[in-house]
Design a protein that fits this description.
two-stranded parallel sheet, 12 helices, seven-stranded parallel sheet, about 10% strand, Rossmann fold, 9 strands, alpha/beta, binds nicotinamide-adenine-dinucleotide, about 325 residues
């Protein structure tokens, strides 16, 4: 046997021992952005992928992309289903439907579905925005872990990736609800990683900064801050495909914290080693944001913004 063949065989053998290769994966929020990138990459790694999203049409588009790609030749296949991750009964049904599709239990679960919110200080952030954010970004991850963790423990191998965010530890102003939801998802991932010790199940928390997705355009970000966030994503955002590959490789190496971008690593380190200097920085950011506010007469009321955004989100979800 030639050297090349031996190397290929070893690579395949190694990959077969990795959680992210030839797995049975459930990806939530698989109709767009990071979730779609996970679904595509996992199918290319030879996996069977359940693409779950509140927007069934978008999830079906992801499946069509997988079917039209080189993934089926590598053993990859996919199926789309509607699931609102904020509803426990729907996540329970997702687990049962996924088992039917796989012909066995899921071995990798990616709690990715989320919405972007922000733009107002605490007190001006509407309770509707608080609720929507916590329902999807935190309860969605809680429901996913509650339903799938016991199944994975019984399986004795596999993994869970919770898509958190740098927001979970950066405490950036005007993002209170989003920050709280992601801090909760991060704490849950850390706890689960400890509880899964010796179970054969790996847990990762992905904490990116900006990634080029639809998170701002489809989210509930108020006023001019949506424009600023959109520009930040366009200028500094990484490609979801790159972030996802890094995240899956990190899971295969049993890494809990996955902080893929340099600016995220900087925030992580400065906050840990110089917390007071970091606080000064966030205070400065808050004051700058306050000075950028347009005159009150030009600003739509909080309710107007939320109602318009929610109408848009609901319309998309229903389609
Ligand atoms: N894009 C970024 O810059 C960034 C940075 C850090 C973390 N994140 C996180 O990444 C995750 C994915 O976001 P994205 O950037 O790909 O955004 P996206 O808007 O492109 O995709 C989000 C997907 O989640 C789905 N979704 C929304 N609510 C849902 C629900 N209740 N149930 C099921 N599906 C639902 C949407 O339909 C959409 O397909 C989110 O958790 C987000 O908070 C994103």
């Amino acid at each position: 046997m030639g050297l090349r063949q031996r190397l290929t065989d070893r690579l395949v053998a190694n990959n077969n021992n990795r959680t992210s290769y030839t797995c049975n994966a459930v990806v939530t929020g698989a109709g767009s952005g990071i979730g779609r990138a996970y679904a595509l990459e996992l199918a290319h790694r030879g996996g069977a992928v359940v693409c779950a999203d509140i927007n069934l049409k978008a999830a079906a588009e992801t499946v069509a992309m997988i079917e039209a790609s080189a993934a089926p030749a590598k053993g990859g296949k996919a199926w789309a289903t509607r699931c609102d991750v904020s509803k426990l009964t729907q996540v329970e049904k997702l687990a049962k439907d996924a088992e039917k599709f796989f012909g066995g239990p899921a071995s990798l679960v990616i709690n990715n579905a989320g919405i972007g919110t922000g733009g107002d200080v605490v007190g001006d952030t509407s309770m509707a925005d608080w609720k929507a954010t916590i329902d999807v970004n935190l309860w969605g991850v809680i429901n996913g872990c509650h339903v799938f963790a016991p199944r994975l423990r019984r399986l004795g191998r596999g993994g869970i990736i919770n898509v958190c965010s740098t927001a979970g530890f950066s405490a950036a102003p005007l993002m209170s609800a989003y920050n709280v939801s992601k801090a909760g998802a991060l704490a849950l991932s850390e706890t689960l990683a400890a509880e899964m010790a010796g179970s054969g199940v790996a847990v990762s928390a992905l904490c990116p900064t900006f990634v080029k997705t639809n998170i701002v355009s489809d989210g509930l970000i108020a006023g001019q801050n949506a424009g600023i966030a959109n520009r930040a994503v366009a200028l500094t955002g990484r490609s979801p495909a790159k972030i996802v590959k890094q995240s899956l490789d990190a899971l295969d190496h049993q890494q809990l914290y996955v902080v893929p971008q340099i600016e995220a690593k900087l925030i992580w380190n400065i906050k840990r080693h110089a917390p007071n200097a970091y606080l000064t920085g966030t205070r400065l950011m808050a004051r700058l944001a306050d000075r950028r506010k347009p005159a009150a007469a030009n600003v739509p009321t909080d309710n107007t913004v939320v109602n318009l955004s929610q109408t848009k989100t609901r319309a998309k979800a229903a389609s």
